[in-house]
Amino acid sequence: MSNSIERFNKRKKLKDTITIIEKVEKSHIEIFLNSDLDIQKVDAFFKETEKHYDTSVSKEEAENFLLKFKKEFNNEKFNKLIEDCRNEVIKSIVTPFGLGKVVAAYDKVGGNVTTIHNANQNIYANEKDKYSRKDYTNTRNSEGKQFAGQGKNSVGSQFTRSQMNKNGNVKDAYTGKTQKADTTSPDHIESLSQYHKDGGFMQDNTKRADFATDENNLALTDRSINQSMRDYDKKEWAEKTKDGVKNKDRYNINKDMFEEATKKGTATKKKHLPTNTEKAKYYIKKSAVTGVNEAAKMGMQQAIGLVMTEFFTAVFDEILDIYKNGFTHGFDDERFFEVLKKRLMKIASRIKNKWKDTAIAFKDGFLSGFISNLVTTVINMFVTTAKRVVRIIREGLFSLFRAVKLLLFPPEDMTPEDAMHEAKKLIATGLIVSLGVIIEEWIDKLIKGTAILEPFSDTLTAIFVGTITGISITMVVYYIDKKRDDKKLLTSLATQIDKAHRNIEQATSII
After folding, report:
1. What's the predicted TM-score (pTM) here?
2. What's 181's DSSP letter?
3. N or C: which end of the chain has fewer CB within 10 A?
4. Mean pLDDT on 208-227
5. Are residues 304 and 178 part of one domain?
6. How far is CA 199 from CA 115, 273, 282, 386, in A?
7. pLDDT tens digits for 100-110?
8. Is residue 196 located within the same domain as residue 236?
9. In 3D, which of 195, 295, 299, 191 has the Cα closest to residue 235?
């Protein structure tokens, strides 16, 4: 119906540009304008007209007109709904639940950048980020020394000798007990593994070795105590209970000495850990490097998805045309391959004409992929994201990115109101895709639970969830459009009626 209104306005505009004055001699116009108005003749004309035309409108006629008006409008919208539904189903199967699932295979719990929060959960983005004791103890520090692996020249051995008295005895740093040096071993007050989790993973091996060889973080203690402590936090270890006895009581720990050593270790750890500026640089650098990779994957997903969507849409259009109009005179006709070639060329031409849209899709996917990687890193500083959450962030941010882009840089022929309307649809689409990702795992498990369907579970899941998501997107978009179009339709109808009334009033006043 909106097309009908537009055509009416165009005809009216064209009609207004043509005046009868251009086709009538000026002398006749002057005679007409200077002549007296014959009111009786005008009245007689209108009375004569009323004999042939009934201008009265009954309530039933008005209702029938509105019903017909609404039916024609809804038929047009319904046809568009079916077409959009088909396109969205194809798009959803191909992109977020087809290619998107392939891209998601490379997603990681906690994202692509190791954060302190995740490290404390033993979640690392890469193998090289994981804790290895040898990186600390068997690596040279900035002075060329190392904690272990150099025999008597190692820092551990030197530290033990520095604590010995002339009788070869040492004082236990945690109990105060004097004992033979060979019954003790140097303990890292702040454990190396905890240091690694708190930021050591951001540093190179030289800086890690600097911490491992700092004597301010070393304490000589009985080997049984050292082995029992392992990588536990010191206060946590002291309160740990076995057979109803706490470790601090089992090993006769001196409270004051233990607390003093713990404070010294904490201060030493703080001195060696990366500063806030160094942490920020680490996160920015890693997010930039991994972001480019993530951006490229998202860009390719959107670009290839658009091409494949256009391909399948074109194929369905050709199949529908064959069904309606036939394929020449059958498959045995000698023109079969010629016609087939033409149809394939039409499909290729449609895809070729989409090259600009494909480039835009890659660019938008690239930017949103980069941003989603950055957002995922920030979130993982506080909360660990699951693999599926990473995917939701990526797909959701793509829709949000497109919506923001549309609002900030709308096309020249789009009003701010229309831009806001389209942005609402993009955000709604993103939310529905995110919900689809959430139910995808449940559907996949359901299908895999059926022995016959298990080999095809991935394909069936993509088709099933993609179809549901595509239909849902179409219905929501249709609802959003319908609310706006119904309002516009009524406004346009009211405007035209009001204009018609004004024209009648002006004509009456002239007469």
Report:
1. 0.67
2. G
3. C
4. 95
5. no
6. 8, 6, 10, 22
7. 766 777 788 89
8. yes
9. 191
